[in-house]
Amino acid sequence: MKKILALALILLVVLSCAACGSGGEKDLLTEIKEQVFSELCTEPYFAPNEFIDPTKTGDEQYVGMDIEIAKYIADKIGVELRIVPLDFTAVLAGIVDGKYDMAISAIAYSPTRAENMTLSNVYQTSDGYGFMVRAEDADKYNSIEDLKDAVVITQSGSVQESLYNENVKECKEFKLVANMTDGYLAVAENKADVCICSTESAQLYAEANGGLYIPEFRFDIDPNMNGTVVALPPQGSESLLEVVNEAIAELTEQGLIEQWNEEYTAYAAELGIE
């Protein structure tokens, strides 16, 4: 009898713990619907994906292709979108820690990010990663080996930083900045010689400002790393991921992502946004 009671008690404890565990993990989509808004974190200094229109205020000042995608997702859920501007490293950390609902900030797929976050399907592919240099150095930096006497700069926490760590064995000095615009400026102002960058965004900056050049060199990388994704917290995001992927499929089918990319490329150029 005592054995039966003991077994029953153990079973009760196990079931109670299981119930606590199953109820403890939040469903992010349900929470978003209950609070009637979704918090998007983004680093608004990467045109045409996300940038600031200085003629506007509040959340309206944040514009770009990624912002349109975020608005579409929020509308699909039926909630208000609230935008939280952060440095890129804080964007990534905020998602890993579950502080924000989603990050749409020209986030490139990487295996490490896939291990630490919930990542959507790819919604945009890029031209890849390479260098930005001053126009007078157009023939000077065309390979990784050419960097041995260069001051190299890129964005902290980015795929570009990983590419430097994995590929560049020697350079004169390596610097990190909070956003890509600061990296571009450092090259333009002779504070750095080479910025490791997404060549598509860098080309937009170069065309808007002059005196800068994008060499033909491209890093040899996994093709998946040319894909841009939405990042969600690692826990409780399964239902939200389904909605996000549905939104991406709908926007792709309608051609809106490509349309927004073209529109905001022109928009940024008109504003002189880099």
How would you portray this structure in words?
The protein contains ten helices and 13 strands. By secondary structure, it is of the alpha/beta class. The chain folds into two domains: 27-125 and 224-271, Periplasmic binding protein-like II (D-Maltodextrin-Binding Protein, domain 2, 3-Layer(aba) Sandwich), CATH 3.40.190; 129-220, D-Maltodextrin-Binding Protein, domain 2, CATH 3.40.190. The strands form three sheets. Strands 1, 4, 5, 6, 7 and 13 form a six-stranded mixed beta sheet that branches. It has a five-stranded mixed beta sheet with strand order 10-9-11-8-12. Helix 3 crosses helix 9.
What percent of residues adopt helix (DSSP H or I)? 40-55%
Largest sheet: 6 strands, mixed
Helix tally equals 10
Termini separation comes to: 78 Å
Record keyword descriptors for this entry.
2 domains; disordered N terminus; 274 residues; alpha/beta; 44% helix; 10 helices; 5-stranded mixed beta sheet; 6-stranded mixed beta sheet; D-Maltodextrin-Binding Protein, domain 2
Spell out the blueprint of helices and strands.
Blueprint lengths: L1 H23 L3 H8 L1 E6 L8 E2 L9 E2 L1 H13 L2 E6 L2 H9 L5 E7 L2 H6 L1 E2 L4 E2 L3 E6 L16 E5 L3 H9 L5 E5 L2 H9 L5 E5 H11 L2 E2 L13 E6 L5 H17 L1 H16 L3
Parallel strand pairs: 1-4, 1-5, 9-10, 9-11
Antiparallel strand pairs: 2-3, 5-13, 6-13, 7-13, 8-11, 8-12
Helix pairs in contact: 3-9
Task: Give a concise summary.
With 274 residues, the protein is α/β, with parallel strands linked by helices. The protein has helices spanning 2-24, 28-35, 65-77, 88-96, 111-116, 159-167, 180-188, 199-209, 238-254, 256-271, and strands at residues 37-42, 51-52, 62-63, 80-85, 102-108, 118-119, 124-125, 129-134, 151-155, 173-177, 194-198, 212-213, 227-232. It contains 10 helices and 13 strands.
